[in-house]
Amino acid sequence: MIPDVPRLSRRSVVAVAAVAVSAGCSGGGGTAGSDGAGHTATQPEPGELALRQAVRDSAALLARYDAVAAAYPALAARLAPLRAEVALHVGAFGGRAAPVPAPVPTASPTPGATSAAPPASSASAALKSLADEERRLADSRATALLNVPGETARLFASVAAAGAGHVALLGTKGAVR
């Protein structure tokens, strides 16, 4: 049974691309404040806080992929390409992605092991949970790209589009091999 996951329309993808292009065309230069005594207050560069949050969000998503693959080894091969892309996103945002975990020989969880989130009650529920998180992050990044400078906005748009693609692939049985 294929889970009921809303599909992305071409119009949605074009809208994200249009927003990315318009955000990318706007300038963005760093500014520093002054305390009036000639001292400049160090402020994060525009987009730096958003990049840090994107690293944290992508790392958490990566951990969720690992938890689902560990809890449901039959899904590991299907999730591997998506997990690899999420790891690339962590790196693109300036973080360090965890290496691909070694395959788990048994389906039983290791005592004392922790994961990003408790695995869902079934494989299809786990896929739906991943799709929901990918959708939430894609929406969040599409919103965030409006408030960051050009190059960062293009990165956010690209990763948001990839996340939207992951949503579609996670909801289509057998689409990822």
Question: What are the main properties of this structure?
Answer:
58% helix; two-stranded antiparallel ribbon; mainly alpha; 177 residues; single chain; 5 helices
Give me the Rg, rounded.
19 Å
Largest sheet features: 2 strands, antiparallel
The chain-level structural class is mainly alpha
Number of strands: 2
- Side by side, the strands of the main sheet go 1-2
Overall, the morphology is: globular
Cα(first) to Cα(last) distance is 18 Å
* Number of continuous helical runs: 5
* Binned strand content: under 5%
Give the topology string: H per helix, E per strand. HEEHHHH
The oligomeric state is: single chain
Question: Which parts are unreliable, with pLDDT below 50 for 5 consecutive residues or more?
Answer: 26-34, 104-115
Mean pLDDT: 77
Task: Summarize the structure in short.
By secondary structure, this protein is mainly α. The chain has helices spanning 10-25, 48-71, 73-92, 123-144, 150-170; strands at residues 33-34, 40-41.
Provide an overview of this structure:
The chain has helices at about 10-25, 50-70, 75-90, 125-145, 150-170; strands at about 35, 40. The protein has five helices and two strands; from the N terminus they run αββαααα. α2 packs antiparallel against α3 and α3 packs antiparallel against α5 (about 150-170). A hairpin with a 5-residue loop joins β1 (about 35) and β2. It is globular and about 55 Å long. The model is unreliable at about 25-35 and about 105-115 (pLDDT under 50). With about 180 residues, it is an all-alpha fold. Strands 1-2 form a two-stranded antiparallel sheet. The two termini are about 20 Å apart.
